[in-house]
């Protein structure tokens, strides 16, 4: 009886969570559509490229193109930077914590019109450090860098969803006379 009551309470709690719109980050939830249907990714061999391709592949109405000529938008990874800075020092003068900072700068052009200013994404992670666990800390650092790149890629795609498509330039000379004006002979 007690087990059934616990199971019922757990099911009720889960039902309440789903009813309020709760979902884990990256799972489910509404995805805001991008303002373009085709995209060319110009990465230049940057470390974030595989993560960015993975996040873009999850977009339901987006097609990654092989050529910039065929794409409505071009996403260019201009720069990426990783830095490892000392965050805290213990009383013995030894490093006890590092701050890992990953930043990426991307430029987007939609329909051949560049969107200014370029997007800059910065992700920070802190890492405890111990001289006794050098090998384990190197593996932890590698995992933190990979997580930071994945998080930066997700932020870039979320920001892409809020871009406004540039207004098209009018083709040819324009008249100041209203279209419905009647000419007098």
Descriptive report:
The chain has 185 residues and is an alpha/beta fold. The chain has 3 helices and 5 strands, in the order αβαββββα. 29% of the residues lie in helices and 30% in strands. It has a 5-stranded mixed beta sheet, covered by helices on one side. A hairpin with a 2-residue loop joins strand 4 and strand 5. Helix 2 (49-57) crosses helix 3 (134-160). The model has no long low-confidence stretch (mean pLDDT 84).
* CATH topology name of one domain: Double Stranded RNA Binding Domain
Number of strands: 5
CATH class of one domain: Alpha Beta
Query: What is the beta-strand fraction?
Result: 25-35%
* Sheet with the most strands: spatial strand order: 2-1-3-4-5
* Helix residue percentage: 25-40%
Based on CA atoms alone, the radius of gyration comes out at: 25 Å
Low-confidence stretches: none
- What's the rounded overall pLDDT mean? 84
Brief account:
This protein is of the alpha/beta class. It has three helices and five strands, in the order H-E-H-E-E-E-E-H.
Give a topology summary.
Layout: H1 2-19, E1 38-42, H2 49-57, E2 63-64, E3 73-89, E4 95-110, E5 113-128, H3 134-160
Parallel strand pairs: 1-2, 1-3
Antiparallel strand pairs: 3-4, 4-5
């Amino acid at each position: 009886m007690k087990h059934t009551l616990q199971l019922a309470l757990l099911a009720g709690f889960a039902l309440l969570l789903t009813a309020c719109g709760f979902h884990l980050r990256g799972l489910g939830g509404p995805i805001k559509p991008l303002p373009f249907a085709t995209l060319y990714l110009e990465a230049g061999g940057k470390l974030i490229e595989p993560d960015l391709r993975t996040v873009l592949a999850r977009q339901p109405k987006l097609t990654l193109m092989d050529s910039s000529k065929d794409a409505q938008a071009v996403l260019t990874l201009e720069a990426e930077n990783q830095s490892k800075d000392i965050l805290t020092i213990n009383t013995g003068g030894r490093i006890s914590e590092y701050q890992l900072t990953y930043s990426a700068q991307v430029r987007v052009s939609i329909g051949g019109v560049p969107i200014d200013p370029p997007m800059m994404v910065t992700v920070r992670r802190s890492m405890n450090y111990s001289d006794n666990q050098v090998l384990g800390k190197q593996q932890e650092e590698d995992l933190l860098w990979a997580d930071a790149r994945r998080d930066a890629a997700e932020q870039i795609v979320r920001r892409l969803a809020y871009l406004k498509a540039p207004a098209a330039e009018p083709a040819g000379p324009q008249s100041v006379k209203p279209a419905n004006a009647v000419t007098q002979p």
